[in-house]
Amino acid sequence: MKTLRNVETAMKNGHGDLALYIEDERQQRAGLFLRDVAYRVHADLQFLPAHDPSGNAMKYCEMFERRAARGQCVNQPYLGTREFAAHFRLINDTTTEPQPVDDSRDLGFMLHDLDFSNPADPQPRFFHAQMEHGVFRVPDWDSAEVRG
């Protein structure tokens, strides 16, 4: 690693090797990554007539199903950070899908989302996650369980 002393010496002598060779400077980062995992996500579509007074809820349900069946979305979902994109498919018949793992545990505090009500200083919001028989529920944004 080049230090201030190397720079000062090069300046004093009028020459010196100040190049940065990434192969010599790279640091290996340890990480725990998931492999061959599957999540089943349940969601409820809430139609807000105030946003589309002339629309109907069925139109939006059909639009969602059509796009989800093709794996289309406006923003690609991800697991934790955008580097870990989540690919998805619509499941109409859950009887053919594997059952959740039969494991229960306290997962600790998890990031729920960032609160961008002040765009200059987004604040993290957390919830206490509990897995019960392979299932954990994410509380609503305005739930008392979400703290920030």
Would you mind describing this structure in some detail?
With 148 residues, this protein is an alpha+beta fold. Among the domains are: 40-90, no CATH class; 99-148, no CATH class. The protein is built from 3 helices and 2 strands. It has helices spanning 4-13, 22-25, 57-69; strands at residues 105-115, 123-131. A two-stranded antiparallel ribbon has the order 1-2. β1 and β2 form a beta hairpin. The longest helix is centred in the middle third of the chain and has 13 residues, at 57-69. It is elongated.
Can you give keywords for this protein?
single chain, alpha+beta, two-stranded antiparallel ribbon, 3 helices
Indicate the topology:
Layout: H1 4-13, H2 22-25, H3 57-69, E1 105-115, E2 123-131
Antiparallel strand pairs: 1-2
**Average pLDDT score:** 85
- Secondary-structure content class: alpha+beta
Distance between the termini: 39 Å
- Widest sheet: strand ordering: 1-2
Please mark out the parts with pLDDT under 50 across 5 or more consecutive residues, or reply none. none
Shape: elongated
* Helix run count: 3
Please provide the ordered H/E string of secondary-structure elements.
Answer: HHHEE
The amount of beta strand, in percent, is: 5-15%
Report the C-alpha radius of gyration, rounded: 24 Å
- Most strands sheet: 2 strands, antiparallel
Overall strand count: 2
Helix content range:
10-25%
